[in-house]
Every structure is written in structure tokens, then in C-alpha cells.
Write a structure and sequence with these properties.
This is DUF2141 domain-containing protein. InterPro entries: DUF2141. The protein has helices at about 40-45, 115, and strands at about 5, 15-25, 30-35, 50-55, 60-70, 70-80, 100, 120, 125-130. With about 130 residues, the protein is mostly beta strands.
Length: about 130
């Protein structure tokens, strides 16, 4: 069973549904933090549109966001292994906790570009798979 806690607020009502399946999760080792961003600037400044905290009981969890207006979205995820509600980083700025992005975009010398991660949401549901780094 996966417990969900919403820690953001949804945008004005619409028909759009965004489903993010997160794989390679470490079960029962910390919450999975899922953030949805609607602009590149919001992503860079860590200003998410909506988010969820998932408590994983298995190696795969799914976050579902409903009533999103049509547009482009990015999903960023990390597993908070130590419970401090922050993505920990090394002295060089590299993440030390598992993380991933929509469309399984790969981080090289920093996060991927917004366009590499972006999902186009309309009236039909959209799904993405995110595989956390080891």
C-alpha cells in the first residue's frame, strides 16, 4: 500500500491527468518526493506547481495529478532517504539520494533541459516513467 500526502495545490480545474510511475525505489527507506513544474524558470527555482509525498512499500510507486490545465509539464522526483525533506548533495553539488526526471531524461553536469523532460498535456491522460538513479 502506498500512502499519499499532497503538499501542493492544483491549478484551476481542467480535464488533464498526469501519471508518473517511479521505478527503482528503495521500499520503506524514505519518502518519494514528486514535483510537477509548468515552466523552466519554476523548475530552476524549485517552485513546483503541485507535488506529492509517497511512502513506498514496493520498488515502484505512482503519483497521479488530476485537473491540470493543458500545457507542458516536467516531473522531478527524489527519494528522501534521511527524512530531511531535501535532496542531499555532495560537496561538489552532485545528488547523494536517488533522483529522476520525466521521460527518464538523463542529468549530465546538472539537470536536463526543461525541453528534454517536458510532457505535453491535453485532454487525454499522459503517463511517464521515471527510473531513480541507484
Amino acid at each position: 500500500m502506498v500512502a499519499l500526502v499532497l503538499f501542493g495545490t492544483a491549478a484551476p480545474a481542467s480535464a488533464g491527468e498526469l501519471r508518473a510511475t517511479v521505478r527503482n525505489v528503495k521500499p520503506e527507506q524514505g519518502r518519494v518526493m514528486v514535483g510537477v513544474f509548468d515552466t523552466a524558470d519554476g523548475f530552476r527555482k524549485d517552485r513546483r506547481l503541485v507535488g506529492q509525498m509517497l511512502v513506498p512499500a514496493a520498488a515502484e510507486v505512482t503519483a497521479v495529478f488530476t485537473d491540470l490545465p493543458a500545457g507542458r509539464y516536467v516531473v522531478a522526483v527524489y527519494q528522501d532517504l534521511n527524512g530531511n525533506e531535501s535532496l542531499d548533495r555532495s560537496i561538489l553539488g552532485m545528488p547523494t539520494e536517488p533522483y529522476g526526471f520525466s521521460r527518464d531524461a538523463v542529468a549530465r553536469f546538472g539537470p536536463p533541459a526543461f525541453e528534454e523532460m517536458a510532457l505535453e498535456l491535453g485532454a487525454a491522460p499522459v503517463a511517464t516513467v521515471i527510473t531513480l538513479t541507484p
